[in-house]
């Protein structure tokens, strides 16, 4: 037995709603993936700044230690 016109309308409506919900979910997922990529890039930038700062600090401390050693002689 095939569905009548009303049942077809109901099935079509439910299918359209499912397609719409899937499209919305995909858009949300794409947005989350984009946010994750941005966060990873920002974390990489912060790591670079931290490493650079620590390197400059290490060189500064070594230079100050050298100066102190020269003055103490």
In short:
The chain has 73 residues and is mainly α.
Main pleated-sheet profile: none
Q: How many angstroms does the end-to-end distance come to? A: 105 Å
Element order: H for helix, E for strand = H
Shape: rod-shaped
Whole-number mean pLDDT: 96
Please state the CA-atom Rg, rounded to the nearest Å: 31 Å
Please tally the helical runs, counting DSSP H or I stretches of 4 or more residues.
Answer: 1
Q: Please count the beta strands (DSSP E, at least 2 residues each).
A: 0
Poorly predicted regions are: none
Q: Which percent range describes the beta-strand content?
A: under 5%
Helicity level: over 70%
Q: From the helix content, strand content and strand pairing, which structural class follows?
A: mainly alpha
Description of the molecule:
This protein has 73 residues and is mostly helical. Helices cover 93% and strands 0% of the residues. The chain has one helix and no strands. The longest helix is centred in the middle third of the chain and has 68 residues, at 5-72. It starts with a helix and ends with a helix.
Topology, please?
Elements: H1 5-72
Keywords:
single chain, mainly alpha, about 0% strand, about 95% helix
